[in-house]
Each structure stands twice: as structure tokens, then as C-alpha cells.
Amino acid sequence: MKIDQISNNPNPFKLTTTMTKPQTKVSWVWEYFVRKQSENGEIRAYCQFISDNGEKCTKNYKYDGSTGNLSYHVVKHGITPPTEHIISENKSIINAANLIY
Predict the structure, then answer these.
(1) Nearest Cα to 81, choosing from 24, 23, 27?
(2) What are the residues whose beta carbons fall under 8 Å from the beta carbon of 77, sequence distance 6 or more?
(3) Is 49 in a helix, a strand, or coil?
(4) How many CB atoms within 10 Å of residue 32?
(5) pLDDT in single tens digits along all 101 residues of the chain
(6) Distances in Å between the alpha carbon of 79 and those of 29, 43, 61?
(7) Could you state, in order of their start, the residue ranges of all structural domains in the chain?
(8) What's phi and psi for 16, nearest 5 deg?
(9) Residue 33 burial by Cβ neighbours in a 10 Å radius (0-12, 13-18, 19+)
(10) Cα 74 from chain centre
(11) pTM over 0.70
(12) CA 21/CA 24 separation, integer angstroms
């Protein structure tokens, strides 16, 4: 929430606020995929990985906003998520476990 201005209301302590859209988080997998429209008009995520022998991966996925399948795919290429991503994920798991107990 962002405080925009002090209202012209007689009560000088009342603040007017507006909701702001949170910044979109960009997944690490987009370093290895590109979004393009397919021949039939569908938005797809195309893997850009190039193997040691120079062959480009041809795998693509329907783009639905989720990156779960994309991250699973790049792991098959031997690519692992950045450390901060793993730490953040582990903290979420620990926090969820603490809520249960």
C-alpha cells in the first residue's frame, strides 16, 4: 500500500491511500526460454538451451503464466536454480511447517 497524499478532510491525521500493484517477480527460468506465438496463434515458451554438441533444444510448452514445468525442464539440461531462489523456497517451506506445529 502506498500513501498518496494527506486528505483535505478537516481531520489532518486521516491519510488517503491507494493500492498499488506489487512488482512482478521474474523467474530465473526465463534466462533459458523465450515466449513466442506459435503458428496457430497460441503463446508458447520455447527452450533456448544449446547442448555441448551445438544442438538447440526444440522443447516448448504452452505458456500459462506458471514456470513449474519450465524449471523442471531446464533441470533436465543440468541447470540448477540460483542459490537465492533455493534459500527463498526453503524459507517458505520452513515457515509453512512452523504454522502447522
Answers:
(1) 27
(2) 32, 47, 49, 51, 57
(3) coil
(4) 18
(5) 555 455 555 665 655 556 666 656 689 999 999 999 999 999 999 999 999 999 999 999 999 888 999 999 999 999 998 876 555 555 666 666 566 65
(6) 10, 24, 18
(7) 28-100
(8) -95, 130
(9) buried
(10) 15
(11) no
(12) 8
